[in-house]
Amino acid sequence: MKKIINSLLLIPLFMVIGYSQSLLAKTQSIELNAGWNLIALAVEPVDTSSNEIFKSIDDAFVSVWGFDEINRDWNTFPQPLVGASEVSSLEVGKGYWVNVTRSSTLIIESTQELAFGQLDLYPGWNLVGFTTEQAVNYKNILSGVPYSQVWGFNTVANQFE
């Protein structure tokens, strides 16, 4: 299994990001620390439902939050906030906040490796994720695209960067 580096961007802009994940393994392991973790999927899950994805860490799993860039609101799982939608499934290219009670390893199983793709971004903040086998400077990914800010979350230091 190859080492995978998760990078997530909160990007206030309008653009399309292309991503390549054709070299990634069919199984993704995401190390989660106790508390909040910002994650992204690197493989297309066999079953994209939130119930199935978090089943392997059910004893530590508290919730997952996603951001709907079109409607400009937060979605949650398992219990939606009043007026919020449920994160019923997870998508490649999106970023998600996952809360767990203890350190855990989330295993995502897939039947296929991903090919090239793109993400539609909308005016304002976008919670997106891209996954690479090597660290990549965000300026290289966003080269030629107008943006005003890029934020990431360092789960080891438990802080935004």
Features:
161 residues, 2 helices, two-stranded antiparallel sheet, 5% helix, 13 strands, five-stranded mixed beta sheet, single chain, mainly beta, disordered N terminus
Q: Helices and strands: which structural class?
A: mainly beta
Rg over CA atoms:
15 Å
**Low-confidence runs (pLDDT<50, min 5 residues)?**
1-24
> Taking strands numbered 1, 2, ... along the chain, how are they ordered across the largest sheet?
4-8-5-6-7
3D structure, described in words:
The chain is mainly β and 161 residues long. 5% of the residues lie in helices and 39% in strands. The chain has 2 helices and 13 strands, in the order ββββαβββββββαββ. It has helices spanning 50-53, 138-141, and strands at 5-10, 16-19, 27-32, 35-40, 61-68, 73-77, 85-86, 95-100, 104-109, 117-120, 127-132, 153-154, 159-160. Strands 4-8-5-6-7 form a 5-stranded mixed sheet, with no helix packed on it. Strands 1-11 form a two-stranded antiparallel ribbon. A two-stranded antiparallel sheet has the order 2-10. A hairpin with a 4-residue loop joins β5 (61-68) and β6 (73-77). The longest helix has 4 residues, at 50-53. It is globular and about 45 Å long. The protein starts with a strand and ends with a strand. Mean pLDDT is 78; it is low at 1-24.
